Amino acid sequence: MSISMLKMYISFAGMIFLFLAMGLIYLGRHKLKGWIARIVSLLAYICLILGGFIILYIVFSGPTR
Description:
α1 (3-31) runs antiparallel to α2. The protein is mainly alpha-helical. The protein is built from two helices and no strands.
């Protein structure tokens, strides 16, 4: 597998984390109550930060051959 394909799959993982964070934040803020909402929101923000770091790594690592 080439480096370019590996970076593509890693970026897909980052996008999945961002979409998962979006859904979990909505779920935690609007549908859940109490401590379950806090746990879901914490998980959502962890996914948001992880997905953001992955995308930043892919963008700033530059093009491949």
